[in-house]
Specification:
Elements lengths: L3 E8 L5 E7 L5 E5 L4 H8 L4 H5 L3 E4 L3 H10 L4 E4 L1 H20 L7 H7 L18 E3 L4 E3 L1 H9 L3 H19 L2 H8 L7 H12 L1 H9 L5 H16 L6 H20 L1 H12 L15
Parallel strand pairs: 1-4, 4-5
Antiparallel strand pairs: 1-2, 2-3, 6-7
Protein name: Transposase IS204/IS1001/IS1096/IS1165 DDE domain-containing protein
InterPro entries: Transpos_ISL3 (IPR047951), Transposase_DDE (IPR002560)
Length: 291
């Protein structure tokens, strides 16, 4: 078995969630199962020898609790790694819910309501990426402000919102730098940050080792998210699949075609170059292969 695995699921036949496992190094598909039930995963991975399962070093996943049970039961030497994207996604969703909650406490015609409602995407960006020099007029709150000024004035409407925003920004920065000591102190934050943000931090605290591994180790579920997007495109092109075997066949066919295209990049470029050559005759140019 590969030393580094990645677990996830995607919606397929009859709106069921199918389990998928990828190699974390070369991003090749290890297996796709019809269901993601715990007993199904235990049965599948139990077929491998104890020596093969002992070679697995890391398993990357989201915060699905029974994936962790499967890893502990089947891979004794593997470290559980929580995907960084899912951690940040949970924090941003908690902050966004608090922003909406605070926004609804103000009158719809008030400046505070307008600042929290319409430029909502600015609150989800990194503060360092916000425009701090050039201001723009916005007719919603009838003022000329920079993006940084909009966010600063918006979060100042509530102490909990300001603390939650600062925590989210610090968390993103710490995860990117891989500073596990500072990350642990952020998870143990005792500031007033709202109920949902507190629940999110409590979830991280219950999975502290796996969360710290997600920040310290370079592995993530990025390869799986890209593969799931490809599967969604396959299903969308076919207007859905009613047969799981047919879906698997199509996925494998697409993967084989991709491997063939990537194995001969020079030949493909040479063929395109030859076709693009101009000729002095009124006929199609002759195709010459690279061999």
């Amino acid at each position: 078995m590969p030393a580094h695995l990645a677990f996830d699921e995607f919606k397929g036949v009859d709106r069921q969630l199918h389990f998928i496992c990828l190699d974390g190094d070369n991003h090749q598909v290890v297996q796709i199962l019809r269901t993601r039930y715990k007993k199904t995963l235990l049965k599948y991975f139990g077929r491998f020898s104890p020596q093969a399962r002992a070679n697995v070093k890391t398993v990357t996943m989201d915060l699905n609790f029974y994936y962790q049970d499967v890893v502990r039961a089947c891979f004794p030497n593997a470290q559980i790694v929580i995907d960084r994207f899912h951690m940040i996604q949970m924090l941003t969703r908690s902050f966004n819910s608090l922003r909406v909650k605070v926004m609804k406490t103000f009158d719809k015609r008030s400046r505070q309501y307008q600042l929290l409602k319409y430029p909502w995407k600015l609150y989800l960006k990194k503060f360092d990426e916000l425009e701090k020099v050039h201001s723009r007029y916005n007719w919603h709150y009838k003022d000329c402000l920079t993006q940084a000024q909009v966010v600063t004035e918006g979060i100042n409407t509530s102490t909990a919102l300001e603390n939650s925003y600062n925590l989210m920004q610090s968390f993103i920065q710490v995860v990117e730098t891989g500073n596990t000591h500072e990350l642990k102190s952020l998870i143990n934050c005792q500031d007033q940050i709202g109920t949902l943000m507190h629940k999110t931090l409590l979830t991280f605290k219950h999975n502290l080792t796996a969360v710290l591994n997600g920040a310290a180790l370079p592995y993530s579920n990025g390869c799986l998210e890209g593969f799931n997007r490809k599967v969604k495109q396959i299903e969308r092109t076919a207007f859905g699949y009613s047969n799981f075997t047919n879906l698997l066949t199509r996925i494998r066919l697409e993967e084989d075609l991709y491997k063939k295209r990537t194995k001969q990049p020079f030949n493909s470029c040479l063929i395109l170059f030859i076709y693009s050559l101009s000729t002095g005759f009124d006929k199609e140019p002759v195709l010459f292969l690279a061999f």
